[in-house]
Specification:
- The protein is mainly alpha-helical and about 70 residues long.
- It contains 2 helices and 2 strands, in the order ββαα.
- It has a two-stranded antiparallel ribbon with strand order 1-2.
- Strand 1 and strand 2 form a beta hairpin.
- The longest helix is centred in the middle third of the chain and has 25 residues.
Length: about 70
């Protein structure tokens, strides 16, 4: 049975999966707003590639015995 948490602000019950999905959405929006704010101030922020996951990093540094 998944753990259910109560969202204090909205008064709704959500699972861990829903909470993580909501956190990811707000992180994405926060970055988008930051970039837009910097652009309005005349500061150009370069595109930053998304972070790699653990599997991609391990694949890059994997040693092959040939």
């Amino acid at each position: 049975m998944p753990l259910r948490l109560r969202c204090v602000v909205l008064g709704e019950v959500m699972t861990d999966q829903e909470l993580n999905k909501r956190k990811a959405y707000f992180a994405k929006v926060r970055l988008k707003n930051y970039r837009a704010s910097m652009r309005l101030e005349g500061i150009e922020v370069p595109n930053i590639p998304p972070a790699r996951n653990k599997a991609e990093i391990l694949e890059k540094y994997k040693i092959t015995n040939s």
